[in-house]
Specification:
heterodimer, A: mainly alpha, Serine Threonine Protein Phosphatase 5, Tetratricopeptide repeat, about 0% strand, elongated, B: about 180 residues, alpha/beta, Glutaredoxin, 2 domains, 5-stranded mixed β-sheet, two-stranded antiparallel ribbon
């Protein structure tokens, strides 16, 4: 075989190997999502045995994964992320220790070992070869040496060119920060979200999901993409997976109203009124945009949350023993908020007397709780009976004596005073409520729904 | 080749391998145990990582604004039993120092919801900032592995002490007294 033919064969082998490798090998991470996963696999879960951050589902691993996603989306380098995690959790978290300090021995020692063994082998082979050369005198030996040289050069070409080919195959298609030579991300996550919205508008739910998936590949911590991916997943009927997306969205941006709204709806669909109520309370505190309020109203979320909470509360109350055999309130697992909802549920069912008795039972354990006192007073005020109204005001007065800034007490007493014809007193209570640092949204809605402000203003204007 | 040559060659190859193995044993044997590393932290002795964000009541918070005081940075979760058991101690510590203002507490929510935390504080007391947004960044920056976990930041802004598990008011005060007396 001539040198030229050997060279061509080597080139063909190298080209074929590079193409096969390029086609089969996944190469470096191509998207942010890939990068997040690859990085998460590089770090040990700090509290698990033998699991990476990518594999573990303990809270600390979840938090680290989410933080890696945020860093990646911010365009931080792998070295930055590694430095941050090592600075916080020490070098043991890093599955790929750095090449400095004592950890560098992990890299140096194997190289030293291979080098040492190689040196020993070379020295011994050389002494063998010297002995053999002294014995080899024939022309056959010279010819064999030429063939051996040709073979060595061919192998060297294959190895060098092959390594170069593999490097090209690995780097082609990869995108890194400032790595314009290897290409750039031309489609942004924002554009993909617009694309998803357009497809959704056309009724193409699968297309929208695919676009949101692409957006999340580019930017795994995009709260909007996570939220709507979760929402569309819930509309497919896969509520558990939807909850995962929505919880991730909330973790990334706790103040994103859409995520809270959809999480509440999904919780309702799962029959979990408590989670739905909690998410709705957060949603209300976020000053949600009008479109979200509209969606909330269209889906009847508020009504469904109240129904679900009432149903759950009534189930708890019905499960309790009769009053005379019932353990004390503080001996049960019920909280004050549960008790107030239960009382409202009983009143809504038409069992006003039982609702009042129920709160009396709570007051035996919590005699000075202003919320319970205000709740009891409010039940009486709404009875329509003048005597009960006066009694209700007494309870509200007592609640506000215990806590003059009790929001429920102020609002309920404003209503009661107005019923009594005491407009000035009602106005004072409402002013005190407005001056509170935090006005519970349910009370604000009650004031608006019942037209309390207009009713207070009316006599003054007239 | 005679057997003497083979033995000599094997000995030459075994020598570097044995050397490397011996070095690895030395490296591994001289490292801190997992328990010791857990009780320490790489952030001890350095400037406190940022604790910045909005509290559960919507107020902005920045740990740097408390430079000049002792600060307990407490990571907690409203449903974790040790956190519930620890809470009265934090309340006691806060009450002990609130008048003088020489030491403060900031709690950081770990893997929990704002509404749970609000209910937790309403039920168990406590009137100090509780970070809601920026909590994950803070938890990762401090290397939190579970809750409750607390760090003590000196008036100079340096992290001087770490506690895995619940703290006590007396325990924190002991640390402050000891470190204040140190030259």
């Amino acid at each position: 075989m001539s040198w030229r033919i050997a060279g061509w064969i080597a080139a063909v082998v190298v080209a074929a190997a590079a193409f096969v490798y390029g086609a089969l090998d996944e190469g470096p991470p191509k998207t942010n999502a890939d990068r997040v996963h690859a990085l998460a696999e590089d770090f040990a879960c700090p509290v698990c045995a033998g699991q990476s951050v990518a594999e573990s589902d303990v809270p600390v691993a979840r938090e680290i994964r989410r933080q890696i996603a945020v860093w990646v989306d911010e365009g931080r380098s792998d070295a930055y992320i590694r430095d941050q995690l090592v600075a916080a959790y020490d070098v043991d978290i890093d599955y790929n220790p750095s090449g400095s300090g004592i950890t560098s021995l992990v890299w140096i020692l194997p190289v030293l070992a291979v080098g040492g063994i190689g040196t020993v082998v070379v020295v011994m082979l050389r002494s063998d070869r010297r002995r053999a050369q002294a014995e080899a005198v024939s022309s056959m030996a010279a010819r064999r040496r030429r063939w051996r040289n040709a073979a060595v050069w061919t192998v060297a070409v294959v190895v060098v060119a092959g390594a170069a080919g593999l490097l090209v195959a690995r780097s082609s298609g990869s995108r890194s920060i400032d790595g314009s030579i290897t290409g750039e991300i031309r489609v942004t996550s924002r554009e993909l979200i617009f694309e998803a919205q357009r497809r959704l508008g056309e009724g193409d739910m699968e297309g929208a999901i695919a676009a949101y998936d692409e957006a999340l590949e580019l930017q795994p911590s995009n709260a909007e993409a996570l939220t709507y991916r979760g929402w569309l997943t819930s509309r497919r009927g896969d509520l558990d997976t939807a909850v995962g997306y929505l919880d991730d969205a909330i973790a990334v941006d706790p103040a994103y109203p859409d995520a809270r709204l959809f999480r509440a709806i999904v919780a309702l669909n799962q029959g979990d009124g408590y989670v739905a109520a909690a998410e709705l309370a957060v949603f209300d505190s976020l000053d949600p945009p009008p479109y979200a309020e509209e969606l909330l109203a269209q889906a009847g979320v508020r009504e469904r949350v109240i129904e679900a909470r009432y149903a759950a509360a009534l189930q708890v109350v019905d499960g309790l023993a009769a009053f005379e055999e019932r353990p004390a309130f503080h001996e049960t697992a019920l909280g004050v908020e549960d008790a107030l909802v239960a009382a409202e549920a009983l009143a809504a069912r038409g069992d006003l007397l039982e609702a009042v008795q129920f709160l009396d039972w709570v007051l035996e354990s919590r005699p000075s709780d202003p919320d319970v006192g205000a709740g009891r007073g409010w039940l009486l005020v709404r009875s329509g009976d003048p005597e009960l109204l006066a009694l209700g005001v007494e309870y509200l007065d007592a609640a506000l004596t215990a806590d003059s800034s009790n929001a429920r007490g102020l609002v309920y007493r404003a209503f009661a005073r107005l019923q009594h014809g005491d407009t000035s007193g009602a106005r004072n209570d409402l002013s005190a409520f407005d001056a509170l640092q935090h006005q519970p949204p349910d009370l604000v809605r009650l004031i608006d729904a019942q037209g309390l402000r207009d009713a207070i203003r009316a006599p003054a204007n007239g | 080749m005679n057997s003497g040559g083979r033995h000599r060659r094997a000995a030459w190859i075994a020598l570097p391998v044995a050397l490397v193995v011996a070095l690895l044993v030395v490296v591994l044997a001289t490292r801190d145990s997992a328990f010791e590393r857990n009780a320490s932290s790489p952030i001890l002795g350095g400037l406190a990582p940022p604790v910045v964000g909005l509290t559960v009541t919507g107020e902005p918070f920045d740990l740097d604004g408390w430079r000049g005081r002792w600060v307990v940075v407490n990571f907690f979760q409203s449903t974790c039993v040790p956190c519930i058991m620890e809470h009265p101690e934090l309340v006691a510590f806060d009450e002990r120092h609130s008048a003088a203002g020489d030491a403060r507490i900031v709690s950081v929510v770990f893997d929990d919801t704002v509404e749970n935390v609000r209910e937790f504080f309403a039920a168990h007391g406590g009137d100090w900032p509780v970070l809601a947004t920026g909590a994950r960044e803070a938890a990762v920056a401090y290397g939190v592995t579970g809750v409750p976990e607390s760090y003590l930041v000196a008036p100079s802004g340096v992290v001087v002490w770490k506690q895995l598990g619940g703290v006590t008011a007396d325990g924190i005060d002991d640390v402050i007294t000891r470190l204040s007396a140190a030259p």
